Amino acid sequence: MGTEAVQFLVLWMAGWIHSRQLEVIDFLREENRVLREQLGGRRLRFTDDSGGAWLSRVGPSVVAGWASSPAWSRPTRSCAGTAS
């Protein structure tokens, strides 16, 4: 198989993966919109157990990077069930 064929195959796969990712993102945005409507303006409250489960899935390095972003630089209230 020639170099051009390999390049074409790689670019085609990248485009296919990208389009699937966009479909998933659209689905998740719509799901979040529906869930927010169902909450009716109430805030989500995480318990220690649910927060711990989330942390174990994403890992501490993701949380550290996320918490250091500019959006999180302002003071926030603690989650329900945690010490402040």
What does this structure look like?
Helix content is 67%, strand content 0%. By secondary structure, the protein is an all-alpha fold. It is elongated and about 55 Å long. 0% of the residues are buried. The model has no long low-confidence stretch (mean pLDDT 77).
Mean pLDDT: 77
Instruction: Please report which band the strand proportion falls in: under 5%, 5-15%, 15-25%, 25-35%, 35-45% or over 45%.
Output: under 5%
- Rg (C-alpha, Å): 20 Å
Order of helices and strands: HHH
Give the termini separation: 61 Å
How many individual helices?
Answer: 3
Counting helices, strands and paired strands, the structural category is: mainly alpha
Total strands: the figure is 0
Regions with little confidence, pLDDT below 50 for 5+ residues: none
Shape annotation: elongated
Binned, the helix content reads: 55-70%
Largest sheet: none
